[in-house]
Every structure is written in C-alpha cells, then in structure tokens.
Amino acid sequence: RKTMSLSFSDRISDLLCDEDSDILSGGDSLECSLDLDFIDHDVEESIAGFIEHESKYVPGFDYLSRFRSHSLDASAREESVTWILKVQAYYGFQPLTAYLSVNYFDRFLYSHRLPQTNGWPVQLLSVACLSLAAKMEEPLVPSLLDLQVEGAKFIFEPRTIRRMELLVLRVLDWRLRSVTPFSFIGFFAYKIDPAGTFVEFLLSRSTEMILSNIQASTEASFLEFWPSCTAAAAILCAAAEIPNLSLVNPENAESWCDGLSKEKIMGCYRLMQENVITNRRKKAPKVLPQLRVMTRAMLRSSDSSSSSSSSASYKRRKLNNCLWVDDDKGHFD
C-alpha cells in the first residue's frame, strides 16, 4: 500500500486553475522549517516575526470552549488526531507533517460547519488535511487511496478527497505555510544550550512532546497555547531530563525573545510535565510472565480472529458519491 506519487508542486495542478497556482508560491506567507540558519544575524528578528504572526495560524480563542460546551465533539477530534499520527508513523512522515495536518483540521473546524460533528465528514476532513500537509512537506506522497490506512473506517474516492481539499484551502484562505512550534524549537534549544552539546536530544525529545500534546489538547487545554509558547515549554521539559540542564529556570524563558509571555509558558510547561508523567504511567512495562501468557493467548486466537478481521474489512463503507457542495452561505447541502 506504500505506492508513492509526485510531490505537492506537481499534484496541485489537479486542484487548481492556472490563474490560482501562484498562491502557493508564498507571497507574504511565512516559511517554516525544523532547521534554522543560525549564521543569519537576523535570526532573532525572524523569530520575533513568527511570534508576531502566529495568531493568524491558530483557531480562535473560543475554540476550546466549543469542545467543553459539546458544540464540537472532543472524542471525534481525538480519534482523528490519533489516526493522523498513526499514518504519519506508518509512512515515516516528518513530525511537521503531522502537526500541520492537525493545524489545518483545527482551523477548518473552527471556521466552517460540518454537516455532523463526527462520523464520515470528520474522517474525510482528516484525510484531506493530512493529504495537503504531506504535499506541502514530503518529497514523496502516497496516492489518495493508499493514504487511507491504519484503521480508516471509510474509504473515499480520490475525487471526493480532492473536492474536500479545495474546500479546506478556501476556508484556510490558502494559508498552508503555518507558524508551528517547529519554527521555534531550534532557536530555543540553543538559548538553553549555546554550546550545542545537547541540542540533538532537546530537538528530538521536544518533538515527541509536541506530537503527544496535540493528541491530548482537548483534555489538557493545550489548545489555549500558541506555537511559540508550546515550543518553549517543550524545550524546557526536555531540558529538565538532562542533569546538566535540569537547573534551567523556566521563568527565564520569557527573555529568549520579544513577545513571549512568562505566565503562558509556565502554564503550558506545567501541563506538559503532567502529560509526560501520565504517558510514562501508561507505558509502564509489563512483567515477563504476563507478556508470555498474553503472547500465547494471541497465538491461540489468531486463527479465529483472522476470519473475523477479513470480513470486517468488507464492511468499510466506500463513499463514492459523497460530493460536498457549498451553498451561498458557505454551509453544506
């Protein structure tokens, strides 16, 4: 199922008219990358620019409250994010690709009404957002059919996904090059470790935390924090795991760059530490005898389960004719 197709610049022609294709070239949009050019003497000014514009690439301030009031389905979002992370791991996509997928998903869900807040419309949105993010960041992108792996409940025709992609692009006003925590973590890592001794670990560990947090956002209120704040908190949590850096004072992070808020960073930092502790408890290793019993049980049941799993695959709905049409008010028909 790992058939690869062309990159975003080649495949976007399927979606756009010629007169619209220059929109993706950037214009005044911001370039984001995991790699920062530290030779550039204007890097601090660039980071300050990211902070100044990051509010344009996040959902509105009341997005989290919609989940708490149940006008949006938190469980449907969690299921979608979990699926996106599984596909990211399956194909070895960059962490930035997964983050952008969720970013597009949240920004769309905040700005546009779906015909229902769970079920196939939400999964179609998930597939479209992941497809767009992969086309933005990955050199090789699976076909739209091959992208629908890792337990996808519904299988959509490529033309249906393309129509959804166009709708996402319109709702996001073509702002796909979002400001993300990955725009900041390299810069913040060198603020904590100027010699660069532990930078590789800081980047790797903070990336793990960022991806973990997007999955727990509606529970732990991570949606309240903007990318720069999330990046600072992740770097601080990673530094706390290194003895040589464990004494770094989180309250000093505000001085790393103009525009950072000590209160926001500290709030996100505390939540992130709690999330790390929770994840460690969930991943506590099982004792060896239990593992052996479980393995034998699974082997004994494999024959009986294989037939049921194969029959279940035929029950996945193939939505050939779910064409999404907008009315004049931007709602779905």
TrEMBL record:
The protein, known as: Cyclin, N-terminal
CDD domains (alphabetical): CYCLIN_AtCycD-like_rpt1, CYCLIN_AtCycD-like_rpt2
Matches recorded under Pfam families: Cyclin_C, Cyclin_N
Residue stretches making up the Cyclin-like domain: 82-170
Listed InterPro entries: Cyclin, Cyclin-like_dom, Cyclin-like_sf, Cyclin_C-dom, Cyclin_N, Cyclins_cyclin-box
Domain annotation Cyclin C-terminal: ranges: 179-302
Source organism of the structure: Dillenia turbinata
Keywords: Cell cycle, Cell division, Cyclin
Keyword Metal-binding listed: no
Family (UniProt): Belongs to the cyclin family. Cyclin D subfamily.
GO biological process: cell division
